[in-house]
Amino acid sequence: MRLKIALSPEDGILCLPLQYNSTLQGFIYANLDRALSGWLHEEGHAYEKRRFKLFVFSRLFGKREISKGRVRFLRGAHFYLSSADPDVLCSLGEHLLRKPSVELGRRSCLVEEVAVEPEPEMNGGKPVIVRALSPITAYTTLAAPDGKKKTYYYSPYEEEWSKSLVDNIKRKVLALGWDTDPEEDLEEASIRPYRVRSADQKVLRFKGTVVKGWMGLYELRMPRPYLQLAYDTGLGSKNSQESGIPSTTRGSKR
User: Fold this and answer.
1) CA 176 to CA 54: how far, in whole Å?
2) Structural contact between residues 173 and 181, judged by C-beta atoms closer than 8 angstroms
3) For residue range 45-63, what is the model confidence (pLDDT) as tens digits?
């Protein structure tokens, strides 16, 4: 399930740091029920040593100008939030609709719209094409010769890219406790670049940490329930840090 949330700054211009992903994440947590927000932030859905928030949000969209490390949205902005947990979306929607104004990056904004997006058509028997609305991140942690850990980010054109993204979906299924076998169901699954350019690589900072990801179009092949999970929770890692939300899908012409 996905919400579209549109905000309009009360003074006419919304000015944020260029790297505003942590600001937008904080806005989401601040506008959830307090108990739900605390549980989601501190615990979430657990599988082994990993904890999944199982929500994902997009970049802000709107007419904008960029200058000196700041981005100015001139006529308000909107973003998309998806989650496999309807309580998250219901709580956020209710909180926003009850408030006359909200704060985003210390800017007072009016809530112009909170709308449920139509569910995309998905046929698990055929590949579908998705557009990344925020960079998709796939990585592994390696041990450097000096013993320190080093993060290696995969390119969509590396074989490990697809495996890493599919494995992430498997772990989310296990964290949710589905009565299914993701290893068997996703044995033939893949997530491949469909139209991805070198300019689609993005380097972001989240609370001082460098994170690399990729925009572009991707072809997904997997059963329908898993397509829905990817749509609701994002592709790849760091989804709750504005990473990997796919757009509505369409059939592949290949």
Assistant:
1) 9
2) no
3) 888 888 888 999 999 999 9
